[in-house]
Design a protein that fits this description.
The protein is of the alpha+beta class. It has one domain: SGNH hydrolase (Rossmann fold, 3-Layer(aba) Sandwich), CATH 3.40.50.1110. About 25% of the residues lie in helices and about 25% in strands. It contains eleven helices and 20 strands. The strands form four sheets. Strands 1, 2, 4, 6, 7, 9, 12 and 14 form an eight-stranded mixed beta sheet that branches. Strands 15-3-16-17-20 form a five-stranded parallel beta sheet, with helices on both faces. A hairpin with a 5-residue loop joins strand 18 and strand 19. Helix 5 runs parallel beside helix 11 and helix 7 packs parallel to helix 8. The longest helix has 19 residues. The N terminus and C terminus are likely disordered.
């Protein structure tokens, strides 16, 4: 480190207990104390646009998508399922199908979906009180609906319109997984990385994770992440970055480089604990690079970008995530991560991935979701809480049959005919049941519940939203289009009394 970098390093070493067992065989003995390292930099460098070289595939226990080279596109990325082919129905077929659809929500359902006035007041009182002292933080955890960023971007906007602009928040290090978008300029990955997610089944070994319920691990030298943290929204300025990593007995070292200047080398070896690197700048930061040095393990748990004040919405959405993720992480280290980055409000948006399969047991779902809320409240006992239920969903499948078609006077030929079938009952009913269970448990654990399935059914349901022009539902009839997500966000924001905006 030279004088030219205008940096200083403050190092606080906590006394950390020894680990007596691995995460795979027994719970990890961890500590709520953390290793803090703080860098102060000048910032303000206008770096040229970050261009990624072709990244290598990263190892994943579930699938191995090719990581993205950034989010520089001017148009909205294509949401999941929107490119699937639609075979239209005849008017008669559509009319017969719609007769089987779940009924629109009753007046009583609509009434139940309104938030309790005292809880809304408490929600805003919590955020308002925090805004006078420090950055206000809201964390939102969920599946692909949140990971797409369209919904969360508008909620973030509404929060910041009311409580001040606090920055982009969580920069998901899983970027490159399908359906995951970020409000930053570019994200480049080199070398081999392995992502780890919590198990979705009870009884499986827990993982050590950060706040985002994931971990990213490099085992190869010179593996690196380079991120242009300048937001796609010009108003966001990253004056502060916080990197969470794992201290572990087999931990290696990595270099921290900000705006082209190396700040120092961090050693992650030690007893299991959360490590935190804070970078504070007088002027906005443009870029951060993390470069691994040897073959030992380095595990990263999350990166956060924010300003000195205002509101921050940390989006922890992961496509495919389920409520059971909360039960699949090592609790003490997760609590330590929360203590390093506490939240004033928590939003859980789970359900779509919890009710899949040929059969579904509502009572088992109630038990599982209760455990999710117990785990959440054990970590965030005082945070204001909102639950977002799964929205409406329709199942579409194709049926092929062979028919004989005349090909002349003397012969006939066989021809394959494909017809589309829609199930407008199974998943709408499951989602309505899941929403009722979330509402019941929400009252028990002091969480407001926004029933997105009721909102979508009030608008005609998933099939009607797909038929809109332009459509608000993707062709897979599970995900929404960008316009659909933004409409849902507008309605959620109005429900939460963050905005009085009316439908266009």
């Amino acid at each position: 480190m030279t004088k030219k970098t205008d940096c200083r390093l403050l190092l606080v070493l906590a006394l950390l207990p020894a680990v007596v067992a691995s995460a795979e065989t027994a719970p990890v003995e961890a500590t709520s104390q953390a290793l803090h390292q703080i860098f102060s930099v000048a910032g303000g460098k206008d770096m040229e646009a970050l261009k990624c070289t072709t990244p290598q595939r990263r190892k994943s226990p579930e699938r191995r998508p090719t990581p993205s080279q950034g989010n520089n596109q001017k148009q909205d990325p294509v949401p999941a399922g929107s490119e699937e082919e639609i075979i239209p129905l005849s008017e008669e077929e559509e009319a017969a199908m719609l007769k089987k659809a779940l009924a629109p929500p009753s007046a009583e359902e609509l009434r139940r979906n309104m938030p309790k006035s005292e809880w809304i007041k408490k929600f805003h009182a919590t955020l308002s009180g925090a805004s006078h002292q420090r950055v206000v933080r809201v964390g939102i955890w969920g599946g692909s609906h949140m990971a797409a960023e369209f919904f969360t971007a508008d909620v973030r906007q509404a929060l910041q319109d009311r409580y001040g602009v606090g920055g982009a928040g969580h920069i998901n290090l899983l970027y490159g997984r399908p359906g995951l978008n970020l409000p930053i300029r570019a994200f480049c990955r080199t070398g081999e990385w392995r992502e780890e997610l919590p198990p979705r089944t009870a009884g499986s070994p827990k993982i050590i994770s950060g706040l985002g319920l994931y971990a990213m691990t490099a085992h190869t030298p010179h593996a690196a992440l380079e991120i242009d943290v300048r937001s796609t929204h010009a108003k966001y300025r990253a004056h502060q970055l916080a990197l969470h990593f794992l201290r572990q007995p087999e931990g290696g070292t990595f270099d921290v480089i900000v705006d082209g200047e190396k700040l120092g080398t961090l050693d992650t070896q030690g007893s299991h604990a959360i490590g935190v690197v804070e970078i504070k700048a007088a002027m906005p930061i443009s870029r951060i690079e993390l470069r691994m040095n040897e073959t030992k393990t380095v595990t990263l748990l999350g990166l956060f970008a924010e300003d000195h004040q205002g509101a921050v919405l940390d989006n922890f959405g992961i496509a495919g995530a389920a409520g059971n993720y909360w039960r699949g992480v090592e609790p003490e280290l997760f609590k330590a991560a929360v203590s390093e980055r506490p939240y004033d409000a928590v939003v859980l948006a789970y359900g779509t991935n919890d009710v899949t399969g040929k059969s579904w047991n509502p009572e088992r779902y109630r038990q599982d979701y209760r455990q999710t809320l117990i785990t959440m409240r054990a970590t965030l006992p005082q945070a204001a809480c909102v639950l977002i239920t799964p929205g409406d969903r329709v199942t579409r499948f194709y049926v092929k049959k062979i028919v004989k078609v005349s090909a002349g006077k003397r012969k006939t030929v066989n021809k394959t005919q494909v017809t589309t079938h829609y199930d407008l009952q199974t998943f709408p009913q499951r989602h309505a049941q899941a929403a009722a269970i979330q509402r019941e448990l929400g009252d028990e654990y002091q969480c407001m519940v926004w029933d997105m399935s009721v909102v979508m059914r009030e608008m005609g349901g998933a099939y009607a939203l797909m038929k809109r022009s332009p459509p608000w539902m993707a062709n897979d009839l599970i995900h929404l289009t960008p316009a659909g997500y933004r409409e849902m966000a507008r309605r959620f924001v109005a429900w939460l009394e963050l905005s009085s905006a009316k439908s266009p």
